[in-house]
Amino acid sequence: MNVLVVNCGSSTVKYQLFAMDGEDTYRVLARGLVERIGISGSRLEHRVAEQVFTEAGTVPNHRVALEWIIKVLTTGETGVLKNVSEIQAVGHRVVHGGERFVDSVLIDEVVLKTIKECADLAPLHNPPNILGIEACQSLMPGVPQVAVFDTAFHGTIPEWAYIYAIPYEYYEKYRVRRYGFHGTSHRYVAERAAKMMGKNLEELKLITCHMGSGVSFAAVKGGKSIDTSMGFTPLEGLVMGTRSGDIDPAIIFFLMEKEGLSAKQVEEILNKRSGVLGISGVSSDTRDIEEAAPSNHRARLTLEIIAYRAKKYIGAYYAILGGLDGLVFTAGIGENSSFIRYSICKGLEHLGILIDEERNKARRKEAFLNSEESKVKIMLIPTNEELMIARDTWRIVQQKR
Ligand code: ADP
Predict the structure, then answer these.
(1) 317 and 219 in one domain?
(2) Do residues 204 and 325 touch, judged by C-beta distance below 8 A?
(3) Counting atoms of ligand 1 from 1, which one is nearest the CA of 290?
(4) Which residue in 184, 231, 257, 380 is a FRET match for 152, CA 20 to 30 A apart?
(5) In angstroms, rounded to a whole number, what is the distance separating the alpha carbons of residues 348 and 328?
(6) Does any domain span residue 175?
C-alpha cells in the first residue's frame, strides 16, 4: 500500500511517500517539501533516494501545493508512481485533537467537523492541516485519509496532571487544560527505546526529551504518557528556540503595565522573542549559542539555563514515574548536540544517570550514550514522525478493508 504522509504548516507542505508492506516493512519512495505558500518565490524540493530536485513556481494556496506534489510524484524523472491512483491512502499530521481524539482516526465528515472545532484551541496550526485534508479529498476522491494528532499520545495523562489550578469553570466552559504536543514523536521514540533495550514497553519507565526548536519532555510509564511539559499550548515547559517555557504568569501583567503592551503583544514576545533568542540576544539556534559561548556571557548563561531547567523536569518525572529505566534524546538538539546532552546529564549521577563522554559523541543515529555502570540507559533516537503517521494510516486502512 502506498501511503502519502502530509504535514501542512501555514506556509509549507512537507510530504513523504511510503510503500508499506506491513507496519515494520516499508520503503520511502520519495520525500520533500513545498515552501513559501502564499508568498512570492515558492519552491519545491523533492528527493528520490540520494537525488534532490528543486523547482520554482507560484503557489497561492495549499491545494496548488498538493497538486504540484502529486505532479512531481507521478511524472518525468522525479516520478515514482505511474499515476495518482497508486496513492492508496493519505496520512495527515494534525496538531490539535482536543479531548475528542486520543488515537489516530479515519477522516469522515464528522471527524473533519470535530477537527474544525478544535481549531479554536490551535488557531495557527489546525487551519492549514484542515486545508491539506480538504485539498487531498478533492484531488484524490475516495482515497482513505487518516488524521494523526500531536496531542493524542498524551490522552492518557491523568486528570490531576492536566487540570490547572484556576477556576474549574474554565475547563468546563472552554476545555482549558494540559494537552501536550509532539505526541507522535514521543510515542515513536518510546517504542524504539523498548526495542533497543530488548524489553517490553509495558514494563518500562521512560523520560523522552524532544528537543528541537520546540522542546517538550514526557514521562512515559508502560508505554503511556502520564505527564508532559507542554500544556494548553506549546508555550509551557522548557526553554525553546523563541518560546519562554514556564514563567510566573504575573510577569505578563507586570510587562503590560510597565511597557504599555497589549495581551497580543505580550503573547508575541513570549512566543517569538523569548527562549534561547531572548536570553542570549544572539540567535534562536543553539548551534550559534554554542559557538558564541566561549566569549559571550549571555550565550553561556542560555546553555546553563537550558540544562538546569531540563534537570528539574527530569527530577520531577523521575519522582512521578517512581524510578527510571531510560532517558531518550531526540529532535534537532537531542540528536546533534553532545554538549547539551552532556550538560543535562551531568550532575544527575545520584539518579543513576551516568553519561559516557565517548559514546555521547554520536549524532543522528540510534545509540546508547550511558556508561556501563549507569542504572539508567541513556539513548539517542532520531525521531520519525512521518513513519509513525504512515504506520497508523496503514493500520487503520487495513482494519477498515
Ligand atoms: P523543528 O522543531 O523545527 O522540527 P528540529 O527538530 O529540526 O526543529 O530542530 C532544530 C533545532 O535543532 C535548531 O534550531 C538547532 O537549535 C538545533 N540543532 C540542529 N543541529 C544542531 C547541532 N549540530 N548542534 C546544536 N543544535 C543543533
Answers:
(1) yes
(2) yes
(3) 25
(4) 380
(5) 15
(6) no
CATH of the domain at 374: 3.30.420.40
The answer to whether position 170 is within a domain reads: no
Residue 210 CA to ligand 1 center (angstroms) comes to 11
The distance from CA 330 to its chain's CA centroid, rounded to whole angstroms, is: 10
Residue of 12, 216, 242, 287 best suited for mutating to test ligand 1, as the one with most atoms within 8 Å of CB: 287
- Active-site residue, selected from the candidate residues 21, 24, 150, 246: 150
392 has catalytic annotation = no
Alpha-carbon span 363 to 339, nearest angstrom: 11
| CA-nearest residue, atom 15 of ligand 1 | 285
Q: What is the pTM of this model?
A: 0.96
Same domain, 129 and 204: no
Q: CB within 8 A of 63, min separation 6: which ones?
A: 131, 134, 135, 138, 139
Set of cell numbers at residue 49: 533516494
Tell whether 75 is covered by a domain.
Answer: yes
Q: Which amino acids bring their CB within 6 angstroms of ligand 1?
A: 212-214, 241, 285-287, 290, 331-333, 336-337
Q: Are residues 212 and 70 in the same domain?
A: no
- 55 falls within a domain: yes
Secondary structure element (H or E) that encloses residue 245, with its range:
none
117 lies in the same domain as 224: no
Q: Tell me: do 138 and 267 sit in the same domain.
A: no
Domains: count for the chain = 2
Q: Which pLDDT tens digits describe the chain residue by residue (401 residues)?
A: 999 999 999 899 999 999 999 888 999 999 999 999 999 999 999 999 999 999 999 999 999 999 999 999 999 999 999 999 999 999 999 999 999 999 999 999 999 999 999 888 988 889 999 999 999 999 999 999 999 999 999 999 999 999 999 999 999 999 999 999 999 999 999 999 999 999 999 999 999 999 999 999 999 999 999 999 999 999 999 999 999 999 999 999 999 999 999 999 999 999 999 999 999 999 999 999 999 999 999 999 999 999 999 999 999 999 999 999 999 999 999 999 999 999 999 999 999 999 999 999 999 999 999 999 999 999 999 999 999 999 999 999 999 87
Can you state the angle between helices 126-139 and 62-74, rounded to 10 degrees? 50
The total number of residues shown for the chain amounts to 401
User: Domain range holding 114?
Assistant: 2-149
Distance CA 136, CA 128 (A): 12
- Cα separation, 257 vs 48, whole angstroms: 54
CA–CA distance, 362 with 216 (Å, rounded to integer): 21
